[in-house]
Amino acid sequence: MIRLDAAPVLVQWAAGGWALLWVTTRRREVGLGYGWLQRAVFLAMAAGSIGAGLVTEPTWTREIATMLFMAAGTVALVVSMVRRHAGVAGQRDLVERRSARVAAMTGIDRAELRFDRSAAEFPPALDLFAAAVGLTAALLGAVAAGDPVILSVARVMVGALFMGAVTDAMLLGHWYLVQPGLARGPIIELVWATGLLWLPETVVMLWPTGMVSVLNGTIDDGYNGLLGWFWVACVATTLGLVVVTRAALREREYSAVMAATGLMYLAIITGFGQDLVARLLLAP
User: Where are the domains of the chain?
Assistant: First the structure.
C-alpha cells in the first residue's frame, strides 16, 4: 500500500506550484513582485516538508533533494530581487504605452514606474530549474511511499501539477489588484491548465487499487461510504468551477477577474479534496 505523510504532500505542492509559476514568468508579463510572493510561499512549504520529514520518518533522498530544491529556489528569488530594476518586458511596454496615451490626450506627463532597459531581466529558466529539482524530490518521495511504485509516482507527479495549477491560478487572480491593466492571458492559461490536469488527476485516483474500491465498499472509509461520495462531489465540483471560471473570464468587466479569483478559492477546496481525500482513503 502507498503511505501518505505530510512531508511528501508539502514538497509536491511546492514543486508543482513552482512549475506553474514558471508557466507564468516565462510570459514576461506579470510583475516581479508576484514571483517574490510565490517563491517565498513555496520555499516555506519546502522547509515545512523537511521539518515534517525529520520529525516523523526521514527519507533522506527526498530530504536532500528538497534541500537542493530550496537552494535552487533561493537563487531564483535572489536573482529576481537583484534584477528588479529591469522589470519585465511586457510590464515595461504596457506602462510606457499607457503613459504615452495619457500624455497625448492631456498634455501631462504621467508619473510612471521607471525601468532600466539596459539591465538584464530575470531569466525564467531559473524557475524551471528549481521546479525540476522540486519535482525530483517529490518523485523520490513517491518511490519511497510504497508499492505499487508506478501508481505512487503517477499520483504524486500528477497531483503536484494539479495542486500547483489551482493554487497559482487563485494567487495570480489577486495580483490583478496590484498590477492594473495586466492582460488576462496569464490567468486564463492557469485555469486551462487546471482543467486539463483534472482528467489525469481523476484517472490516477481511479486506477486500481483506487476510489472504485471505496465506492463499492471493498475499502471501508469508516463513514458508511460517505467520504467516497464526498470525493465524487469534489471531482464534479472542481470541473464545474473551472468551466464557470473560464466563462467569467470571457466577460469584459474588470470585476470578472475578481469573480474568477473567488471561484478558484472554491476550486482549491474541492481540488484538494479530489487529491488528498482519495489518497487518505487509499493509504494503509
Answer: 6-83+122-282
Residue whose cell numbers read 532600466: 116
| Three-state DSSP class for residue 250 | coil
Per-residue cell: 266: 472554491
Q: What are the tens digits of pLDDT across the range 46-99? A: 999 999 999 988 889 999 999 999 999 999 999 999 999 888 876 666 555 554
Q: Residue 148: is the preceding peptide bond cis (ω within 30°)?
A: yes
Distance CA 178, CA 36 (A): 13
CA distance 279 to 163: 13
Q: What is the DSSP string of 116-150?
A: -TTSPPP-THHHHHHHHHHHHHHHHHHHHT-SSHH
pTM of the entire predicted model: 0.91
Strands (E), 195-259: none
Residues 6 or more apart whose CB falls under 8 angstroms from that of 63 comprise: 7, 50, 53, 54
Which amino acid is residue 251, in one-letter code? E
Q: What is the DSSP letter of 84?
A: G
